[in-house]
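Fold this sequence, please.
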Amino acid sequence: MTGLPGKLPARDFEEIRLAEALERGRCPVCDARQEASYAALRGLAREGATDRGLRDQMDRGLGFCQSHSVGLSRMELQQTSSQLATAVLLDAVLRRRLATFKKLAGNDAAAQARGLAELADSRCPVCARIAESSRTTARRLLELSADTAWSAALGSAEICLDDLCSLWALAAAGPKESQQRWSIIVSAQLRRLEALQKTLADYAHNSTHDRRHLITPEQQEAGAASIRFFGGSPDRDRQR
């Protein structure tokens, strides 16, 4: 592996992107999900309405979840100042859903419950792409942890709770070498989280009216860090 001095070694664009996320204090898996979401929505906003394969999938039940229905419309507005493609795609989804609703309305309560349970899964193509990106990124990070520099970076990185658990589970299900590498990373993460919890407790202790003057910048940052830990930390303000 080769890389710039002072930077994590990277062999390809994907590893460069992961290194950038770690070096800038972002959860690398959150970052990968954001990139996957952006790429999927951009492609749909540009060509989705005329993609026959996608339209065929929609005829068979493919749809969009709430957040990505909104995301698609925003992406199209950003690119074309229009929402025509979004309207065309959502029309295809609505036609399918409407036909299903009409069919369900004529069934008994048990059949309605089963049908509505099936509809709870929107089969959103953006969600599917994000899930695949998360799995691919986790596998890549586990491979990269064999490198000392990457292992150290993962140990000190602001990996969010959900992705820390996912990476840990993947490592635990892997070979012994993977488990041993990850145990070192987990130990470092636990030390980081223990320090964060202590600083967070100090922040809460000093938050009363008579002690607010004791709040330090480190304690305030701990509050923001805890939100990132539980809520994820992609680069939400990235300009493309």
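The radius of gyration is 22 Å. The chain has a mean pLDDT of 90.
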